[in-house]
Amino acid sequence: MINYDKTEIKNNLTLDNIFELLNIWGGNPEYSEFGILSETICHNEPGVGSKKLYYYSNSQLFKCYTGCDDTFDIFELVIKVAYIQSNKEYDLNDAVRWVANYFGIAGSVEEDAENLGLEDWKILANYDKNNIEENLNSKVELKIYDSQILSRFNYNVKLTPWLKEGISQEAIDQAIIGYYPGGDAITIPHFNIDGDFIGLRGRVLGKEEALLYGKYRPLKINKVLYSHPLGMNLYNLNNSKANINRTGKAIIFEGEKSTLQYQSYFGFENDITVACCGSSVSAQQMKLLGQVGAKDIIIAFDRQFQKIGDEEFYHLKNNLLKIKAKYGNYFNISFIFDKNMLTNYKDSPTDEGPELFLKLYKERIII
Predict the structure, then answer these.
(1) Cα separation of 329 and 118, whole Å?
(2) pLDDT digit string (tens) for 239-259?
(3) Residue 89 contacts by C-beta under 8 Å, 6 or more apart in sequence?
(4) Treating both helix axes as pointing N-terminal to C-terminal, what angle do 15-24 and 74-86 enclose, rounded to 10 degrees?
(5) Nearest in space to 149 (alpha carbons), one of 59, 221, 50, 208
C-alpha cells in the first residue's frame, strides 16, 4: 500500500479539481470570487439541497451554511458523499487514497534521483489494483449539450498567441475553436468519442480573471454551465480514433493545445493524439483508448520540474510509475520524460517545435 501525505495531496489539488469533484457528485457547482458555490451534497442527495456549500480557495476548506453548519476539507466531504450516495463508510485514509487515485497523485517512493536508467524505471510503486478491472469494464454516459451554442462565437478573430505557438489555422478551424467576447475567453469545445458536444472550456485571456479562477475553466452562458468530468473523456479522440486504430498507437498529452500542435506539425492524417486535460489518466480514459484499438500508449506530460531530484521531479516520476503499475498489464506504456531538460519548465513536449518533439519521442522511456 502506498503512503500518502494528506497535506501534500490537498496542496496539489487545483480549484478546477475541486470543481470537477463537486460536478461529478451532482453539486451543480459554479465559480465565485472566493472559490466555488455548490449545492449541499454534504448532507443531501444530488439535486435536493440549496447552494449553501461554499468552498474557499484561500483556506482550501468547505463551509456548509445549512444542515451541517460546519467547516471541513475535501477528504471529509469525500467521506460524507460516499456514505450518502453509495452507502460506503470511508475513514480518513480511504478518503485520502480515493482522491489521490482519482487525480493520479503519487504516494511516496524513495529512489536515487541521479539513477535514471531503465532498471530504475522498472522499480514500480505498489498500487492497490482492487478496482482496476471493474473500472475498465464500467459504462459511463456523459450529458450531451445543444451544439447550437457554438454558432454564437466569433471565428473571425485571429488567435495570434496560439498561432505563434505553432498551431495552424487549419487545426484551430477543425477543432471549432473560437472567441467568446462576453467572457474574454478562447472557446474550446469538447466532444465524446462519437462526436457529440459534451462540454465547453474557456481559455480566459483576462489576467485578473485567470488569477482568480484559473486560465482554463468550463464556460457558463445564459445560465447553462457547459461542464463535464474531464477524467471521463479524452479530448480529440473523436478526430484521432481512426488513426489510433490503424497504428495501434496513442499519445496522451496533458492539454488541448498539444494535440493541435501535433496536428499542425505532422498532419491530420497522422494524428494519434488525445489530451487527458490534467496530469493524471483515469481508468475510463484508458478504456476509451482500448475501445479504439490502442495497444501502445505514450504518456507525454509537461516537464513539471525545475531540476533533477527536486520535489516536483519526484512527484512527476512517481505519477508516471503509478500509471505503468495500474495499466501496464493492459497496454504497452512508454513515457516522454525530458530528463535532459531540453524543454522549458512546464512546457509540453510539443512546445519547442516538431524536431525536438521527435527527439524526445525517440528517446522516450520504454519499460
Answers:
(1) 18
(2) 999 999 999 999 999 999 999
(3) 82, 83
(4) 10
(5) 221
Residues 6+ apart with CB under 8 A from 234: 193, 252, 274, 275, 276, 285, 288, 289
Distance (Å, rounded) from C-alpha 190 to C-alpha 216?
13
Question: Across residues 299-313, what is the average pLDDT?
Answer: 90
Q: Per-residue pLDDT averaged across 290-310, rounded?
A: 94
CA distance 211 to 21: 21
3-state DSSP helix/strand/coil % of the chain, to nearest 5: 40, 15, 45
The arithmetic mean of pLDDT across residues 254-274, rounded, is: 97
Least confident of 55-59, 136-140, 201-205: 136-140
Global pTM value: 0.73
Residue 149, pLDDT above cutoff 60? yes
Closest by CA to 23, choosing from 231, 333, 168, is 231
| Top-confidence residue, 195 or 86 | 195
As a whole number of angstroms, the distance between CA 202 and CA 218 comes to 6
Give the containing element (helix H, strand E) for 98: helix 92-103
DSSP 8-class letter at 51: S
| CA neighbor of 339 nearest in space, from 367, 359, 323 | 359
Torsional class of 300: left (φ above 0), alpha (ψ -120 to 50), beta (otherwise): beta
